[in-house]
Design brief:
A 3-stranded antiparallel sheet has the order 1-3-2. The protein has one domain: Orthogonal Bundle (Arc Repressor Mutant, subunit A), CATH 1.10.10.10. Helix content is about 55%, strand content about 10%. It is globular. Strand 2 and strand 3 form a beta hairpin. By secondary structure, the chain is α+β, with helices and mostly antiparallel strands.
Length: about 120
């Protein structure tokens, strides 16, 4: 499934979770999809620094793990939409907490540096 899967001989739940949603892009992708249905092109607009190849690969992995639902419409031009499964949606509060932490941490750092 994922070539980046972390060896986890002690069956650590944090290691298992990070093997699934860790890395540079997966949390960002999950957060950007959020509670909506979104097309590939829109995701690419929201995350312009990710390549098409990497975005496609990350979405496939998230789909394999049951976190993202992909629906392909047979029309011209072809249209593909993505949304989070219930399992994917269950990660949103954790991602929001990470965002809050980042905002707090950044705000504290700015205050410390610039008074």
């Amino acid at each position: 499934m994922n070539s980046k899967f972390i060896n986890n001989p002690l069956n650590c739940p944090v290691t298992r979770t990070m093997s699934i949603i860790g890395g540079k892009w997966k949390p960002i992708i999950l957060n950007c999809i959020g509670d909506r249905t979104i097309r590939f092109g829109k995701l690419k607009q929201i995350i312009p620094s990710i390549s098409n190849k990497v975005l496609t690969g990350e979405l496939k992995e998230l789909e394999q793990y049951g976190l993202v639902y992909r629906i392909e419409f047979i029309e011209m031009p072809p249209r593909v939409e993505y949304s989070l499964t219930n399992a994917g949606k269950s990660l949103l509060p954790l991602l929001h907490e990470l965002a809050d932490w980042g905002n707090t941490h950044i705000a504290k750092k700015i205050i410390e540096e610039f008074g």
